[in-house]
Specification:
The protein has five helices and six strands. The protein is 29% helix and 15% strand. The protein is globular. Strand 1, helix 1 and strand 2 form a beta-alpha-beta unit. The chain has one domain: Methylthiotransferase, N-terminal domain (Rossmann fold, 3-Layer(aba) Sandwich), CATH 3.40.50. By secondary structure, it is an alpha/beta fold. Strands 1, 2, 3, 4, 5 and 6 form a six-stranded parallel sheet that branches.
């Protein structure tokens, strides 16, 4: 299974996306750029302005056009404030508001049929995604099946969201088309 991440907004969103990425990698998903047609896209949204909300909707629709068979998971501030609006967008499979952050990884894995085969732990051996069981020991991690292509400490492959207007900010990791 392939997953791509698109992040809009503040540094907190980028930090959260990085945490989600580690959870999915630990579960055996392969991280790809959004242009590489993933099986699932995680879009971390912003809602600071009306323009930011519009950009989020445009990005979600663009991802669905690029990969209509993929599942789209939406989280972030915009998801918290306008869940019903996002759920109505074609292609959106799951929406997680701020109170649901701990469920993003396990619920998405369950949607993909992966959660029942793997136990997802943080790099320190903790169950960070809402489990009440707590830590299982320093540096332990259980991974069943295919080994992840990235490990904790490697540079994140999180991709910035594509610019709807096609503007380029000069970053080689951003959409420029």
């Amino acid at each position: 299974m392939k997953i791509a991440f698109l992040t809009l907004g503040c540094k907190l969103n980028y930090a959260e996306t990085s945490t989600y990425e580690r959870g999915f990698v630990a579960a055996g998903l392969e991280v790809v750029q959004w242009e590489d047609k993933a099986d699932v896209y995680l879009v971390n949204t912003c809602s600071v302005t009306e323009r930011a909300e519009k950009k989020c909707r445009n990005v979600i629709r663009k991802v669905h056009r690029v990969s209509p068979e993929a599942r789209i998971v939406v989280t972030g501030c915009y998801a918290q404030l306008r869940r019903e609006e996002l759920e109505a967008i074609e292609g959106v499979a799951l929406v997680f508001g701020a109170a649901d952050k701990t469920r993003v990884v396990p619920d998405t894995l369950a949607l993909l049929g992966v959660g029942s085969r793997r136990e997802v732990l943080s790099p320190a051996g903790e169950r960070p995604f809402g489990s009440a069981q707590g830590p299982v020991g320093e540096r332990s991690r259980t991974t069943v099946g295919e080994r992840p292509r990235t490990t904790v400490g490697e540079r994140s492959r999180t991709t910035r969201a594509p610019k709807p207007s096609g503007e380029s900010t000069g970053s080689s990791r951003e959409y420029t088309g």
